[in-house]
Amino acid sequence: MSARLLISLLTMGGLGLFLSTILAIANKKLKVKEDSRIKQITSVLPGLNCAACGYPSCHVYAESVVQGKVGIGFCFVGGKTVQKNIADIMKVQVEEQERKLACVRCQGGERECKKRFRYLGVRTCEAVNQLRGGDKSCVWGCLGYGDCVSACPFEALELNDNGIPVVIEENCTACGLCVKACPRDIISLIPFSQKVYLGCVSEDKAKAVKEVCTVGCFACTLCANPKITPGGLIVMENNLPKILVERIKDWKDLNQSVARCPAKCYVTRGEDKGEHNEN
Ligand code: SF4
Ligand code: SF4
Q1: Quick one: the chain helix, strand, coil %, rounded to 5?
Q2: Whether the CB of 74 sits within 6 Å of ligand 1
Q3: Which ligand does the CA of 173 lie closest to?
Q4: For 60-116, how does the pLDDT look when each residue is reduced to its tens digit (9 = 90+)?
Q5: CA 166 to CA 107: how far, in whole Å?
Q6: What separation in Å is there between the alpha carbon of 264 and the centre of ligand 2?
Q7: C-alpha to C-alpha distance for 95 and 74, rounded to whole angstroms
Q8: Structure pTM?
Q9: Which candidate, 239, 107, 246, places its Cα nearest to that of 164?
Q10: Whole-angstrom Cα distance, residue 218 to residue 263?
Q11: By the 8 A CB rule, do 106 and 197 touch?
Q12: CATH for 98-192?
């Protein structure tokens, strides 16, 4: 080995050693100490990194809780137990919130709402929606390719044989991922106590609705008539009836509206289901 090569190797080695020492010292001096609560919270989270809380991982959710960016009740997989554990770590009270539930506000499946053209592209709602507003005759309605079903980490949605997603209530954590996944804004979160909702989002006028769907709301306003629904519990807005949920004391007050809707647009759930569906 020549002397020149030896000098070069020693110089480079020395330089490397010097720089790595500087970096090690800087790392030690400048290191930001992580709040120990982040580690504690991460340890009580399920560790699935499902992102249902809206954060990419359990650790990032834990960081955000400690930084005060998000509440303690957003781990839908862990539910109340995890919420209580986080509350203990953060030394705060458990936030009491009414349980919510996803609802699919369209009943116009393949039998009720025909397709406008044969779609052969990528089989997602997002993709078909970008092609001339989708293959469904109704430009408001459910496209039926199940993006919401794929988005749900809790197996709380399934497509029925008519191409409409159905919520399996006992599995739904109201995480809202299906709401975000739907390109048509058809899924909403409603209070668990809400027994009736409108299964249509079309804001079109009567003629246009009737041309494309047999179960679409054609804004006849019957359900909003005070002779049928007492106390102005339903009002018309953008060609659609809107239930004023906060005013409802007894969901049976909507029985007549539900029963007399000529298009059978209302969907009922819970213990009153049978009564509403009689007609
Ligand atoms: S149905 Fe929707 S809100 Fe309910 S758990 Fe599934 S993705 Fe979340
Ligand atoms: S509700 Fe929305 S995401 Fe789900 S199948 Fe219908 S259009 Fe697609």
Answers
A1: 40, 10, 50
A2: no
A3: 1
A4: 999 999 999 998 988 988 888 999 999 999 999 887 788 899 999 999 999 999 899
A5: 10
A6: 20
A7: 11
A8: 0.77
A9: 107
A10: 8
A11: no
A12: 3.30.70.20
Contacts of 250 (CB under 8 A, 6+ apart): none
Could you tell me if the CB of 65 is within 6 A of ligand 1? no
**Structural tokens at position 126:** 């997002």
Same fold, 36-90 and 98-192: no
Hey, what are 157's tokens?
């949605």
**Which tokens go with 156?**
């709380």
CATH (one of 2.60.120.10, 1.10.15.40, 1.20.120.420, 3.30.450.20) for 36-90: 1.10.15.40
List, chain by chain if needed, residues with CB within 6 Å of any ligand 2 atom.
104, 125, 142-148, 165, 181-182, 184, 186-187
Q: What are the C-alpha distances in Å from 195 to residues 189, 198, 271?
A: 13, 11, 8
* Atom 2 of ligand 1, nearest CA residue: 178
Query: What residue spans define the domains of the chain?
Result: 36-90, 98-192, 193-279
Residue 171 Cα: closest atom of ligand 1: 5
